[in-house]
Amino acid sequence: MTTLDGKIARISAVRDITARKKAETDLLTIQKLESLGTLAGGLAHDLNNILTGLFGNLSLAKLHLKPAETAHRFITKAEESLTRFTRITNKLLTFSKGGQPIIQSVELTELVQEIVLFDLAGSNVIAHLDSDEQLWNAKVDAGQIQQVFSNLVINANQAMPKGGNLFVRLSNCDNSAGHISHLSSGLYIEIEINDEGYGIQPEHLKNIFDPYFTTKENGNGLGLTSVHSIISKHGGIISVVSTVGQGTKFTFYLPAEPKTAVKDTPLQTEKPQKLTKQFKILLVDDDETVCNICSSLLKSLDCAVITADSTPKAIDEFTAADRNQEPFDIAILDLTIPGEAGGVETVKELLKINSSTKMVVSSGYSDNPVMANFQKYGFSAILTKPYSLEQLVAVLRKLSNE
Asked: Is the pTM of this model over 0.85?
């Protein structure tokens, strides 16, 4: 450009692209997390199928042993270790999709005690657990709530590298009058987790639940985000107070209900108690190991079992049984069969043929919305992988009493 006096002038345009670069970086991060989530979900599904085989084989082995035998005790210990391992798959599933909670009535005291002792094993932190004598049952997804407690306990442990005390308090809270703001009226369990760690800087407190926010050198900023997300999906709230150099206290609320007068007792007998009815059952699962194990477990209960590894075969078996006037009492359907319709579409077809058959949905994807709202899709019960003989018996008893 030439000016009036004949000189050449240069014009430069400068654009701030910081916001665009940040948006691109955030999008790339989200895409990476989605990819990791897909991988985590598939891995958890496969692990749960393997664990179902392990649980089933151990259950069958115990049928041939007396409770007093040494091998019986070793197998029981192995089952306990596998139960702890399922916490890892639950974490993978929650990370993969977040998942709608599958609500059950859960006794929190023993569950929390196990988590705290497990996550503090080998540390110098001393745990103090206190709960109301008549603590209500929590209405929660046990797997997701395990992750909440585990994340908070691990954070507390890391905040006390030289040791200290961790106080966990569980108490009944009646919010029917709505005295706790931002919390719907109803019954809750109030949980306080208080450590003696180095505390959180005041300027960081407002951000601790934000995705990717972390002050840890190797942190990913997703732990407390998951905690907040899970509690919110349960209809609860969480808050935190902290004093630098003195410690941090998390307080959160979970929906609750009073315990019933009569509690179901776990099966601890040498052999599982016999069912009041010997069912005819159609078992549909594409995993050969799961199919074989579940079939063996059902036969140990004197049930008649027909297996199918695909949706078309399941429909053929179901149709033939109904045509011969020997219908199935129960159908246990795998929720996901690669390359096929899976449990949701299959149950619709089967109920058209015979609506009196009780349908059970089974899956290693315990966070799937179908598992959380199974009745909406035509199922009468759920069987979450991995499951033991005792859990299988509990489902069949529930169906026999309906």
From this structure: no
Q: Which two tokens stand for residue 236?
A: 């609860």
Domain ranges of the chain: 25-96, 108-257, 280-401
Amino acid at 368: N
Q: What percent of the chain has pLDDT over 90?
A: 34
- Looking at the predicted structure, is the pLDDT value of residue 36 above 60? no
Domain 280-401 has CATH 3.40.50.2300: yes
| Closest among 386, 328, 393 to 362, alpha carbons compared | 386
| pLDDT surpassing 60 at residue 310 | yes
- Sequential DSSP letters for 277-346: S--EEEEE-S-HHHHHHHHHHHHHTT-EEEEESSHHHHHHHHHHHHHTT---SEEEEES--TTS--HHHH
3 state DSSP class of 7: coil
d(CA 281, CA 357): 9
Neighbours of 91 (CB within 10 A): 19
**pLDDT band at residue 266 using 50, 70 and 90 as cut-offs:** very low
Class of domain 108-257 (CATH, top level)? alpha beta
108-119 and 142-158 are packed helices; what angle lies between their axes, rounded to 10 degrees? 40
Distance CA 113, CA 118 (A): 8
Residue 13 and residue 5: Cα distance in Å, rounded? 23
